Amino acid sequence: MAMQAQQVQDTTRVELRTRFGTLPVPKENLLTFPEGLPGFDKLYQFALFHDEDNHSIHYLQSVDDPAIRLPLAAPQWFNIDYQITLSDEESRALQVDPEDELLVLVALSEQEADQPPRVNLQGPIVLNASKRLALQKVLERPQGSLVISAN
Questions:
Q1: Is residue 147, in this structure, part of any structural domain at all?
Q2: Do 86 and 126 touch, CB atoms closer than 8 A?
Q3: CB distance 116 to 15 below 8 Å
Q4: pTM of the complete model
Q5: What CATH number has the domain bearing residue 46?
Q6: Is residue 46 scored above 70 in pLDDT?
Q7: Is 90 within the bounds of a domain?
């Protein structure tokens, strides 16, 4: 009696189409933006990954729309030190507990190969890495001074 091969769907991973090829991403590694991402309010699930050749730049890739991909970097890479205060509403959206690890990343605009990236300083991405929740904090009027060191 011949056995027929059954196609088993892996419910623990998603296959993410990226410009680097198809990446299998464990579902527990996905980030959720409870409010969506400004400009993409209907997109809630994203994967965060980096190119193996460049660990400094990460990519926030929509699970639902492969055309939506934002390059991100740690602000420290540009010698920028954010001191961000989350509102009560933002803290609730991120489900922040004292032991949670919060990270801040800045969005980059993609430029030609010979041009330096442009950094969005007024819309950092705040991640609760412990709970895999994220939001974009829109800074309408940054307070204090911003010092950017360039070499």
A1: no
A2: yes
A3: no
A4: 0.78
A5: 2.30.290.10
A6: yes
A7: yes
